[in-house]
Records
---
Amino acid sequence: EQLVESGGGSVHAGDSLRLSCAASGRTFNFFNMAWFRQAPGKERESVARIAWNGATITYADFTKGRFTISRDNDKRTVSLEMHSLEPEDTAVYFCAASPPLSPDEFVYWGQGTQVTVSS
């Protein structure tokens, strides 16, 4: 699977962004998908995860109900809708894929898209 993110940008605090991740392979429907982020000088952290069939969704506590992950298996895309963005959300955001039986082993990664939130 090749994953390509888009939708990042520079916004002000309180604004919204929608990130998208497009998969090129035909096995997308069988993978769990996730969004991670990495801020400068910090470790990469999980933001949100969605199971291959969309049945299970989890969010990091810091999303505080501001973020929504979704997937469209027909279009082979996964999205992250972000609202009420804060400067602390500034990071490179990555999408990643893991096999259904190894949900914590992310084997495919995108190149990342930059999100910058100014106060």
---
Amino acid sequence: QVQLQESGPGLVKPSQTLSLTCTVAGGSITTNSWMWIRQSPGKGLQWVGSISGSAETHYNPSLKSRTSISRATSKNQFTLQLSSVTPEDTAMYYCVRWVWGKGYDYWGQGTQVTVSS
């Protein structure tokens, strides 16, 4: 059983950098791919970006200039940084595992991030 747990501040001021960490148990982040997905109030799910088992990163083009995903293999964690946030970045953020042939199979419970002064 793979478990993912998001952590980070729930409130971020506009123009600051949002930083979230996903801690993974029961599966190594050096295999498969690991995603950040968010859902804003009243909107659908939006893929933010991903990091593969070989540490290759991909980002949503609409967020690419502000997004960075990194990992710490010794801690089995990966981290999202989203800079210059605005209230439009307010959302529930999820970390998710993606497996070839299966798709998204394990999700964290999500963490609410609000951007407000």
---
Amino acid sequence: VQLVESGGGLVQAGGSLRLSCAASGSIFRINDMGWYRQAPGKQRELAANITSGGSTMYADSVKGRFTISRDNNRNTVYLQMDSLKPEDTAVFYCKARIFSDYFNFNDYWGQGTQVTVSS
């Protein structure tokens, strides 16, 4: 199983970016999918999560600015980031809980994509 992220880059404050993360490989089903971020010198933190049924949750710092969504047919999760701030600068990682059959699962991480917001 592999998670491949795309969509990071450099943007000015107030701008927008859309991240994508596609899962591939031996997949029976995918439960939660989420986006985490790690700023320089800080611990990795959860930014947003979405269940297989579409329920979402967000860190307080991104509420109202970020929107997580998923396409279950494409095994892909997205993160639309609007009104970006310099403090959003971080490496963003996607994570997915992927079942290989009815009972067995692993948590997989993407390779990370850099998001840099200039002031």
